[in-house]
User: Fold these one by one.
Assistant:
Number 1:
Amino acid sequence: MADVFWLAPDALDRQASAFDEYAQQAGSAYSWLVDHPLQNTAAYPAYAAAATRAETLRASMADWFSYLQEVLAGVATELRDVAQEGRSIDAEEAAAIDASAPSVYDGQTSTATEVAEDGETPRSTDLMPVWGPPGGGAGFFCDQGPIYDHLNELTVDLVPGDLLSPSQWIDTVLGWLGATSLPERILQEFGGRWGDLRAFADTVRGMGALVDDMRGHLASAAAYIEIAWQGYAASSAKDYFEKLNGVLSDAHVAFTDAGNAFADYADGVEGTAEAVGGAAYSLLDAVLIAAVAAGLGTATIETVIGGIAGWGTAGIAMLRAGSLVKEINDSFQELNDLITILTAFDNLTSDLSDVTTQLHVPAMEATP
């Protein structure tokens, strides 16, 4: 029995501190997410559609990290309890208990064959290094500073002032085009705090990097634990650590992909806004030409654009203006279609909530 069982209490105790540090890191991630909500401005549909999804994901991620903090703190506590028990009883007695009534993690009981295979790992009482998170908490991965603040005013330069406050003839020409509300619609479609959404994308990707850092360093701690602790209970704990590693690995991929999707959405909005802004300024030029021509009486303007195609300067300008109005309206449709980028992640919220069934807060229990 003694050959199967091995425990170096001080070495095990030391690796417990890695789980303590990352429990605090998970708590820092939770606090960061709670402290950085998005404003859901319903008046701006394109922004609101993304912000609603972002807020749902943010809340789910906060709950996920809160639960992860419990899990990691529970691991640290249980490892320290094992180390303390190992100091308080004779090694032969500990080996007998481990063989006859071993404690298990998460109901995972190992077979004698599994324990024997795990026992092939070298043993050592050395105090191996502890790899913890970088300083700065979640902000190390997520704080990008004010680099996106200007995007919260994305609509400022999209529409020329003359289209927002048109003269009588410009207003008349816009009426001929059926576009009297076009300037206001541009501002509505692109209104919202796009800088905040861009920052959220960075936060989600940053959380992915934080989880990947956690996964790698806790995998190292688990490997060092194998050197310091072997036996039936240790084999059960090893299985639990492998499950933990899988959960963290999946979360890293999911967070990174979701963050990239929100960034792609923001890229699409910015690109569409740039195109619409350019078209709006060109539209003003065409409308001004038509308005001046009409005001000077050099052409007779009819209510149907096709009917004025041959009426000189005003007719040419109106055809150009009509083409630009269509271009802008097509851009509105492209903007609406962009939301499909985010729909692929609508199930991520429920996937994150599943962690409570995938990975229980560890509590060492005696085998029945």
Number 2:
Amino acid sequence: MMRDTVRLVTVETVGRTPETAAGAVLSLVLGFLLLSATVLGPLFMDRIRFHMSSDALVQYVGGEVVTAIVAVLLMVSAPAWWLGQQWPSAVAAGAAAYVVYTIATVVAGQEYSRYSGNAEKAFLLYAAITAAGVALLVISFRTLIDIGDLSGPRQGTGWVLVAIGAIVALLWLGQVAGFYRTGPTQEYQTATSLFWLIKYLDLGFVIPLTLITGLLQRTPSPGTDAAAVTMLGFLSLLLAALLFMALEMLRRETPGASWALAFGVMLLLAPSAAVWTRWLISRD
């Protein structure tokens, strides 16, 4: 049985191409726009005020820490894109997917008619972030396929992705079943739109893509390798954001906060981040 190796090196170059040049520009633009939105948002200046309850807002404040880190990472990676190095596309693919998902929850997850705020004034900023994120995701994914010689722990990747997808699916289906069985909880009543939006995005898109990508690791190809790197990066960043959300909820003692939630997220984050790192590091 051929031993898995990790060969997505951090210093090898593929040469500057139109795709890598576009990746450099998009990473710089997306990072700047994302950092601007984060600084203007509830984590720092609070100039952009969300139409959310204080309890729901606590979750976003926690997650914004990861979003700010992603913004800086994207801007820092721009020179490496321009030089044609391989690692920026591997990082940017998952980061761009994370940005698109997060901004979708920001725009569509607010209770505009229920809580006061002014987030609609930043609509064009969020639309620009989403457009740049989608473009960067496409370019990063195509660049990963063009590299063509990615090699990572495919068997481990398959198990991790299938396990995460199955666990999250069971959790979300349990919450939906609980709603139908016993009615809305206090947390649901304060963030109704966000509750259904997250379940819709995860059950309709994220979980199926995670499971399919995991299962396809049995028949590797440049496309499945690129999908693995993208999904692992996306899930690692998303789970990191959820961990910060859980910790912020504990710190502020909001409804639904629990150490069980924080430890549960950590148990999912650890293997996802570990396997993603295996795809990223250089090894002879």
Number 3:
Amino acid sequence: MKNSLSLAITTLALSLGGCAFLNLVEGTSILGRVPEQGNNFEEVFQNIATQRSSEVKKISREFGTLEYINLNNILNHTRRSSRLFDDDRLLLNVLEASCSGTVFVIKPSNEKNHFLRLLNANLIHYPELDLNKNDIKNIFNTSKNNNYNNKEGSLTNIVDSYFVNVNRNSAHKSYYCIVNKEVTDAIWLGFTITPYKSASKTKYEYDDILVYLSKDQILDKFQNQLKDGWIERKIEINEEIKNQQEKAKEQKKAEEYKKNNFKKSIDSQKKVWENRLKNTYQIGDSVCSFKGNLKGNIEVISENRFKVFWHANASVYSNSPSEDGLFFGNFPYSYFDNNFLFQVRNKDINKFEWINKDKISYCTLHEV
């Protein structure tokens, strides 16, 4: 049984020159009531041309010779509702019958790199590339500004290189015949737009076309070009990943060193508080309190009682107080800077207080 895969359908309305058109919901099938049969995509294409009296035209460019037929004699262009079906079931049925493998359909809403999509879906395989799932994912998720993830890898891009004026935003569709994980041939259905002047106004002529792309003439050459780009991108990505890993390793090493330095300093600050009763002071010495994180100078000494002039209230925050013990080991790590400094903000206060010796010790932090 032949299978068909189709990405999600999005009906598009294109506005050009201020006039909306091509709201493709229904229209005319290019096959008519009696579908043209064929043993492969090429035969279907040739039979459509023969039975609809459409001349097969050929254009030679970079990737080889492209064949197409103009569908203007099939469709009534005076009535826009008669344009191509957005979902031409007759054509799809015929193409499915002609392909000995799987028919894969891609619409404009999923126009990003077709061949990477096929590769990512495991429908095609390039053993010579040695691309694993992560490689494909990394290439596929490259920035949309990069050629590897935009329309460069689509049939529309091929057709555009031949016609120049292909409408990329229309309800065109790409049909791939895939056999044994290889694209054997493809059909592109869409239209070109040709601007022309009429009574000093720019108008547009629309030509619906059906394009046949063969494996030998076009698809292999196009895929080879894409594969060269993918290999280059894989090397770039691996180098980027290596650099990111090295950077992460250095950052981790620096963070560990910072944490160790912080811990040693915190332990030292705690010791200052634990040994506070052993301290001896003189008039004018700078001291700090555990409670309230106050900073001041000794004005009077009376045995184990001190009259302190508090001139600052310290905090790591600009508009709110810190928890008690900021000077003595209760400093938040997130405010320990990369220069290994415990910087605090001091809010000016002016008050005297008699306080016991066990309530103060020498200050340990720096003002910011």
